[in-house]
Design goal:
The chain has 242 residues and is α/β, with parallel strands linked by helices. Helix content is 36%, strand content 26%. It contains 7 helices and 14 strands. Bound molecules: adenine.
Length: 242
Amino acid sequence: MPLMSKPTLLQIAMEAEAAPVAKALALGSPQPLHQHLPATIRTGGSPSAPLALVTQGHDSRFNVDAIGTQPAALTAWVAATRLSPRLIINAGTAGGFEKHGAAIGDVYLSEGPVVYHHRRIPLGNFEPYGVGSYPTVDVSAIARRLGLKLGKLTTGDSLDMSEQDARQIAASGSSIKDMEGAAVAWVASLMQIPFIAVKSITDLVDAPHPTADQFVTNLDRAVARLAAALPAVFNELDRSSV
Ligand code: ADE
């Protein structure tokens, strides 16, 4: 075993998602990641399995968490260049689909490449460029052992789903929808770092209730499920040396 193992980098967009996870993983208190970014970093784990949790931080202009793909990519880039992680995990909440059997609080591991559903550029190679399609590590065996679901993740910068988004999501065969995964996976692919996503369902985007209402109602429950699942996911990742 190397004297200093490379850390696993866990990136979570919102503080409300990160705080229960940090508690479950017994991580330190949040510190600034970079002088010009709102992002934060907490560290912990063990010498053989160090762990860093970064959040995208707080947007002081709008007094909200800095969610979405811009802060996701920037935070991932700064954290990954600083830490040289062995693996990047984007964890958090996501929308699911009733038609694909999702329920509130289900925890999904990513399956297959992560795509975008809101970048429509019908100009030759710009079209697949817009979709992205960034690889993830095959964690299907871990999902089976832990009784977690597997789903293809798609990313866009809106919480709701327009008709065009819905068509794009159906065409890509995705079953979970977030606002960061593809941006973090892009950075991981640029740096040739293995990537997975772990997402807990706050809302069912094909259900009749407004997505934002579902998100607010179910956030705590979904985050508690995520925080309960992540320590076991880390154990399995260490055991299988992903
Ligand atoms: N995060 C939680 N629910 C979501 C949704 N419906 N779309 C995008 N990101 C989400």
